[in-house]
């Protein structure tokens, strides 16, 4: 899918990559498509990428808006929780950095 950029004019391509590994092939053959998402998550070493993780990656890079991540995600509830966790960690990290540099 193409999502509007927030860092400059244009759009960014967001996609999911699934590689036909023996595990994926077995899930398809056995009609267990509901488990494919899990295999894609664990298949990063084969170059697999979930749609949701790619959305989060582009958001953290400052390329797309948070609202786009949540509305386009396959699992919006989990994505919102993950984004809150990442944003909190970033805020705590920035706060800690400010203290160590004597800015607070």
Report on the structure:
- With 104 residues, the chain is mainly alpha-helical.
- The chain has one domain.
- Helix content is 55%, strand content 6%.
- It is built from five helices and two strands; from the N terminus they run ββααααα.
- The chain has a two-stranded antiparallel ribbon with strand order 1-2.
- α3 (51-60) runs antiparallel to α4 and α4 (66-72) packs antiparallel against α5 (76-100).
- The protein is globular, with a radius of gyration of 17 Å.
- The model has no long low-confidence stretch (mean pLDDT 90).
Characteristics of this structure?
104 residues; mainly alpha; two-stranded antiparallel ribbon; 5 helices; globular
Summarize the structure.
The chain has 104 residues and is mainly α. The protein contains five helices and two strands. It has one domain.
List the helices and strands and how they pair.
Layout: E1 2-4, E2 11-13, H1 22-29, H2 36-42, H3 51-60, H4 66-72, H5 76-100
Antiparallel strand pairs: 1-2
Helix pairs in contact: 3-4, 4-5
Kindly name the structural category. Answer: mainly alpha
Task: Detail the poorly predicted runs.
Answer: none
Average pLDDT over all residues: 90
- Tell me the radius of gyration: 17 Å
Q: If strands are numbered along the chain, what order do they take across the biggest sheet?
A: 1-2
**Can you write the helix and strand succession as a string?**
EEHHHHH
């Amino acid at each position: 899918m193409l999502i509007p950029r927030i860092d400059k004019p244009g759009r960014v391509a967001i996609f999911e990559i699934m590689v036909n590994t023996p595990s994926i092939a077995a899930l398809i053959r056995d009609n267990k498509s509901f488990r494919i998402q899990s295999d894609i998550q664990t298949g990063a070493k084969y170059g697999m990428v979930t749609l949701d993780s790619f959305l989060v990656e582009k958001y953290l890079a400052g390329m797309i808006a948070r609202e786009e991540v949540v509305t386009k995600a396959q699992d919006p509830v989990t994505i919102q929780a993950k984004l809150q966790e990442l944003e909190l960690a970033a805020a705590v990290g920035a706060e800690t950095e400010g203290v160590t540099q004597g800015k607070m």
